Amino acid sequence: MNAKTACSKRSFRLYPFIFFKMSKAVNTSTNKEQQSGGPKFATDDPRLRDIIIKCKDLEECISYVEKNKGDLIRVVIIGFPFDEGCARNGGREGSKEAPGVFRFHLYKIVNSMGGYLFFFFAKKFLCFPSSPPTKNVIAREATRLSKEVKKSKKGCLHKKKKKKMIGKKVQIFDAGDIDTKLDYDEAHNSLSVTVFKALSNGFIPFVIGGSNDQSYFNALALINVLKKASTEDKSKSSSWGIGVMNIDAHFDVRPQKAGLEHSGSPFRLLLENKDFVDNKGIFSEFAAQGHQCSMEHYDYIKKHNNGANEHAILWLTQVLRQRETLEKIAIREQFVEELKRMRGGKNINTLFISFDIDSIRSSDCPGVSCPSPIGLTSEEAMSICLEAGKCSNVRLMDCSEFNPKAESYLTGRLVSTMFYHFVLGLAQRK
């Protein structure tokens, strides 16, 4: 049963609404492609393009924050418009166009309730904003709560009115793309430096690629941030560690080709990174598909366990689907379980979620270099992004392998909606 069908059931039970107010955007971008998103909409039909703070680069985002300080969660979009790594790995080129197409669809997402994005829980399922309530009584309740929220300066209902209601202001920034004039090695370095700066200035980066080789350089930025922090803060232990989850149909632990990185090698580079190994980093493969992963690569991952912080492989069919069928544990719940397991590792308090969308079945996500007839559903992908956003340990997320040349409209809308739900998750952080 999908969320829309479930919402129409008479037995529907309304659970706590969760609101967050988005700050007004200041359109400072000079990139016409970033300002695209279809036709302008009337004021009674606001879109995310009206509230995303568009900047020409990360430095402008940082400058904006310095002038507009506040207790906010800030997420920044960084584009990696390169696909040479995919070509090196024998895949189809085209993912370099992903950041622009992603923005086109993201900016058109409806910003419900005049600046307040909202969603609500039912007993056994989540009704996403993309499937609005059909019951008039629910719609009336949403309108009533929205009016109360607008009266609140904090952008959420006071605890006295709704004890279980929580809210948090979230700002969405768009820092543009890594310069396409750079050669591939320079682009990787520029990406790592940009993500490092974003993390160091309190942003939660969401990197949209581009080929999957970006993920190692995103992880490297996070490693360098933690390494620097442990060196500067003498009051804390010098030991630290991160957890990295690869949501992917493939392991992506192939060796480099002629010493060159490619879309199949990011996590081999990670597992052999000295800082990651020395500080007992933990790695997890989520939704891997057995017919797309070799036994040699399986053995490689197991061989590189970091002591007590054991790496995990959660197969799509042999683990996730079996537990879903036999134990009635949904994919979303299994993802949350794995986040908790990773956080339970020694010195692990920071997580990076890397989402290769070829892990989503091709009927829902055809626009990838290597589509598969089986995989996660679009609803599962969105719920995973929601839970990733809710987890306060997640400081970085990337999305790879969206290939608009293969298919742009359906997949573009899916990826932009995945980001939307990641932001909704951020709004629930305590």
UniProtKB/TrEMBL annotation:
<dbReference type="GO" id="GO:0046872">
    <property type="term" value="F:metal ion binding"/>
</dbReference>
<dbReference type="InterPro" id="IPR006035">
    <property type="entry name" value="Ureohydrolase"/>
</dbReference>
<dbReference type="GO" id="GO:0008783">
    <property type="term" value="F:agmatinase activity"/>
</dbReference>
<keyword id="KW-0378">Hydrolase</keyword>
<dbReference type="InterPro" id="IPR023696">
    <property type="entry name" value="Ureohydrolase_dom_sf"/>
</dbReference>
<comment type="similarity">
    <text>Belongs to the arginase family.</text>
</comment>
<dbReference type="Pfam" id="PF00491">
    <property type="entry name" value="Arginase"/>
</dbReference>
<protein>
    <recommendedName>
        <fullName>Arginase</fullName>
    </recommendedName>
</protein>
<dbReference type="GO" id="GO:0033389">
    <property type="term" value="P:putrescine biosynthetic process from arginine, via agmatine"/>
</dbReference>
<keyword id="KW-0479">Metal-binding</keyword>
